[in-house]
Amino acid sequence: MRAAVLHEIGQDKLEVLDDVEAVGFGPGKVKIRVRATGLCHSDVSAMNGVLPQPAPFIPGHEGAGEILDVGDGVTNVKPGDRVLVCWLPACGACPACRRGQTQLCLVGFMNAGTPNFKRPGGDVFGFAGTGTFTEEVVVDAGCAVPIPDDVPFDIAALIGCGVTTGLGAAINTADVAAGSSVAVIGCGGVGISAIQGARLKGAAQIVAVDPVASRREAALRFGATEAVAPDALGDAKQRITAGEGFDYVFEVVGKSATARTAYETTRRGGTLCIVGAGALDDFLQLNMFELFFDEKKILPSMYGGGDVLTSYERAIALWRAGRIDLESLITHRVQLAEINEALDQMRSGTALRTCIEI
Question: Counting C-beta atoms within 10 Å of the first and last residue's C-beta, which end of the chain has fewer, N or C?
Fold first, then answer.
């Protein structure tokens, strides 16, 4: 079986091998034939060590495909079903799930420490307990979410992570108010989805902030009212808010420097929503006086900040109705053998989302 493998953390290239085997199939598990998978920035962050992940591993967590086989006790899917991969399945029984915060369930994270592939040289892990840069993957049945027949695999893959994360940040976590002002810092696939979510919620001004000109141009097509380079954000704040700051600012980069800029760009009493996944050793500094005096709400958003199954259904309904554009998020397509081209496209900022067709 073919798969793209990272041998050691810190390497910037993946090796596509044909001697990989998906393992772990049994009760409560399903085997999926992956048909399409998106390249998410979190995959790159795991490769370079920003996000913790054992190696060697197969990146990829934003995927969709068909069920090949199901283990004993699996009732939610059957062979032949079309599914998307949920990298953070809810167990339904832990305290977070019982509170209705299924996006905070840790059961899925526990799978990241168990190898679900092997090669002649030894075990291979799947990123976030999945690993979709491969032809087949074995995961818990809860990771396989059925999709309607009219949803293409590439669209379903995007809904499995980036779209759900960005839309949910605006709709669930921040709950953007109609008529408000919004700034989105970082306009890749997740940032663009946050822009679409803010537009759906009725934001009056949506300023997209990104250093890459093509991404700024794309943001305007997806609903931003203005798009600026990072060094022009201060001017936009002055012009649009008379220097007060935006009602909502979304940080979709995952770095303390941009989070600090986002905090300073948020008005007093406004909302800073942290969407980007950052490093364990990258600390955001706030002094206790400003934290008290400015009364800014800091809201981290994990996987869209809501029940992911509900979020999937909402994204599909909005896409069907033409309220969100998901097709245009896919700016590049490659085959699995060309996976390193996809990495280059992401690192250069030329891609919003690259779809790997398998």
Answer: N
- Alpha carbon of residue 343 to chain centroid: 16
Find the angle CA(132)-CA(63)-CA(27) to the nearest 5 degrees: 70
pLDDT digits (tens, 9 = 90+) for 212-238: 999 999 999 999 999 999 999 999 999
pLDDT of residue 332: 95
pTM of the model: 0.95
Dist CA 164 CA 192 (whole Å): 11
Q: How far apart are CA 7 and CA 59, in angstroms?
A: 11
Angstrom distance (rounded) from CA 142 to CA 73: 12
